[in-house]
């Protein structure tokens, strides 16, 4: 019987595991992290590299360790202080490589990889009727007292409707496709169109503009914003006052989050790179949409909604991911365990403990992290700092459960 099984070994799952072990709330024997990748954090590292990200958007105090200045100490201790990049009107931000190397150091320090089971979870059941949960995976079944869902931003890439008729062999890719290889795509002998209007599209366009001419196609004018949301939303008291006062599961919570998030925006330092590429003649920015695309012997013939067209093109999509609640596991768990879903299919959580509520109003043994917890954790739930907020809630609601159990068995056992 495990104390915790965390589903997903990305930024959130790994950060939570680190906090749980660091606090003494559980041991390696009590904890499993189920994730299909070879290594923890692989999902984030791959995505970041696929889009040509150089630095994080968040500051140096946002990382997976428990001490706020851990990443800064790591950087200076390894003579890498210059990888904390100065930013106007914002704290220093780490380079991607510094962030990942620090995360690997944290993983090694706590032996987090020992808790990692390579596998994909297909179902959660409660054979003991509420006393425990069974996590079914392609690597076997795991019985546990608590499950934490840390499934990521969305189950699969979003494809625009016009892509449905484009054959698989055509030069069309989504930046979050598992098999997307930016190196191979830079070798395309024709024009490259990057579709999207946010930071991912901008970074991808900048990366390709170093090799070839790129058209960045956005549905809207490009907008700048430094952070993904106002830093007030890091503060739990602010979240309680401005989010938890709205009805749980309501559309009003989603509306507040949408208004608070700077979605589809580009930070000024990436906008500067776009402007430089445009001034060099390597990049064109178009506002519009693709109406249809046909495969030809020379790449794609692309027609735009305004009547313009271009031939011999490859199209790279940076159009995001499907909604997090569309993950098949979310429906399976809700149906099997009788859990409540609110507006847009999001889990309805206990705002204090992050336990997914049953339809009878009681707390289940399933806890939720990341974007799926947005209606309780707020606009920065999906971000690195959101993982820390979730860890604090989990530790506060289930303090030192392993030691408590031991004490119950053996009151003389030192705590
Ligand atoms: C390119 C990029 C840059 C970003 N930059 C920043 C930034 O600078 N600052 C910031 O705060 N945030 C940033 N974010 C947002 C956020 O921090 C990241 O998306 C982060 O990876 C989210 O962590 P996560 O654990 O929720 O998801 P992920 O890191 O994607 O991990 C989810 C994991 O769950 C696994 N999983 C899913 N289903 C199952 C299943 N059924 N069984 C087992 N495992 C499963 C997946 O395989 C995956 O490994 C960025 C996001 C992206 C994409």
Automatic annotation (TrEMBL):
InterPro entries registered for this protein in UniProt: FAD/NAD-bd_sf, HpyO/CreE_NAD-binding
Domain annotation FAD-dependent urate hydroxylase HpyO/Asp monooxygenase CreE-like FAD/NAD(P)-binding: ranges: 5-152
Name of the protein: FAD-dependent urate hydroxylase HpyO/Asp monooxygenase CreE-like FAD/NAD(P)-binding domain-containing protein
């Amino acid at each position: 019987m495990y104390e915790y099984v965390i589903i997903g070994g990305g930024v959130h799952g790994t950060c939570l595991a680190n906090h749980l072990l660091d606090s003494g709330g559980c041991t390696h024997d009590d904890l499993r992290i189920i994730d299909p990748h070879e290594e923890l954090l692989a999902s984030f590292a791959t995505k970041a590299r696929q889009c040509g990200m150089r630095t994080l958007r968040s500051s140096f105090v946002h990382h997976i360790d428990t001490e706020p200045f851990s990443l800064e100490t790591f950087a200076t201790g390894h003579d890498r202080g210059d990888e904390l990049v100065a930013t106007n009107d914002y704290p220093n931000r780490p380079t991607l490589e510094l962030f990942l190397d620090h995360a690997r150091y944290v993983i090694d320090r706590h032996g987090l990889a020992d808790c990692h089971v390579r596998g994909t979870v297909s179902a959660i059941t409660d054979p003991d009727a509420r006393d425990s949960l069974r996590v079914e995976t392609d690597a076997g079944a795991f019985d546990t007292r608590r499950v934490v869902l840390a499934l990521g931003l969305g189950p699969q890439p979003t494809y625009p409707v016009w892509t449905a008729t484009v054959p698989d062999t055509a030069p069309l890719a989504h930046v979050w496709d598992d098999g997307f290889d930016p190196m191979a795509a830079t070798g395309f002998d024709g024009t490259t169109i990057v579709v999207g209007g946010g930071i991912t599209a901008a970074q991808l366009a900048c990366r390709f503009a170093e090799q070839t001419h790129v058209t960045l196609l956005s549905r809207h004018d490009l907008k700048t914003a430094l952070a993904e949301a106002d830093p007030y939303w890091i503060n739990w008291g602010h979240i309680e006052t401005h989010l938890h006062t709205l009805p749980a599961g309501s559309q009003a919570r989603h509306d507040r989050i949408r208004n608070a998030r700077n979605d589809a925006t580009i930070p000024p330092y990436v906008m500067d790179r776009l402007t430089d590429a445009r001034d060099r003649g390597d990049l064109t920015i178009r506002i519009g949409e693709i109406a249809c695309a046909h495969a030809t012997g020379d790449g794609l013939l692309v027609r735009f909604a305004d009547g313009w067209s271009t031939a011999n093109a490859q199209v790279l999509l940076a159009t995001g991911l499907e909604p997090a609640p569309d993950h098949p596991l979310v429906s399976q768990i809700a149906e099997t365990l009788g859990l409540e879903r609110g507006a847009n299919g999001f889990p309805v959580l206990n705002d204090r403990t992050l336990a997914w509520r049953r339809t009878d109003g009681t707390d289940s043994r399933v806890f939720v992290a990341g974007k799926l917890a947005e209606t309780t954790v707020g606009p920065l739930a999906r971000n690195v700092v959101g993982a820390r907020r979730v860890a604090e809630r989990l530790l506060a609601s289930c303090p030192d459960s392993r030691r408590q159990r031991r004490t119950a068995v053996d009151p003389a056992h030192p705590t």
